[in-house]
Amino acid sequence: MPSTIAFTSCTRLEAFPDQPQWGDIDAADPDHLLLLGDQIYMDFGIWPFSDEWIGRPRGYDLDTFRRTMAGKYERQWAEPHFRRLYDRMRARNRVHAVWDDHDFAWNNAIGSQVDVDRRQVAYEQFCKRFPTSIPGEIYQSIDTPLAQVILLDTRSHARPVQSWAAAAGGGASDSPLLGAAQFAFLERELHARPEKPFVVIASGITLRDGGMNWFEYRDDYLRLMRAIDACGRRVIFLAGDIHRNAVNPRGPGQPCHELIASGMAINYLALGIAADDCRNWALLRLHEDGRAEATLFSRIDADGKTYPLAW
Fold first, then answer.
1. pTM of the entire predicted model
2. Average of pLDDT values for 137-159?
3. Is 276 left (phi over 0), alpha (psi -120 to 50) or beta?
4. Per-domain residue ranges for the chain?
5. For the residues 120-141, what does the mean pLDDT come to?
């Protein structure tokens, strides 16, 4: 019997207060649910089309930042379709998450640009919904019947690439994206469960697509590819962020499949256009004999399109 993992990202309640698409995931009855960032949007769109235009939270005092973030989480968690799915999965400890920029602080935010107090607010609000196993961190590793799932934080410890190059001179022990401790954790975990047929790595950002991605941090990207190749296991990389679905198969220079599911309930420019509600999510099926396939769903393709993953 296959093991199934549903995953998605990017949900903006302000544009879509009714989100029946969560019922589609509920009906699929996955074994696990992964939310890959932008569970809320602290900012989105451009002035004057949005009251919380891109970058506005930078100017919030700490109390306003805290109240705004808490209120957005509370409203999203009160959406009945989402709440029903979340409660059912949480009762079995089967829902986990990472964050991306809009639910970490603001558009394109990285840890070196966000003060300690705001990072702490974000961590507290996140962990109310998604308890983690490492105090003070959201990255962690969980076991499923057929896969070890490694959840990464690509925001808290990130620094600008230029600052990294100047300060560290390209040293291999640190990481401008994950930080030294988290990258060492990732490399250890890739070898920690050899009895599992699969490793699933989940990250808010993609390997190569979007405005911020792993390839932008070139040394980190190459180090990740080497670590995946060296572990000798079937690795699948999951990501969100870019408001579209995609399958990027493994090949020369990339020893893992990449699956992207992004745009569960999102629009563009905060204009509230219903057609922009992508309803993008995906279902990964893993089999004991090492086979795997992914089905990607959207508003346009509600029945989904399935892609076999070959090694």
1. 0.95
2. 97
3. alpha
4. 3-309
5. 97
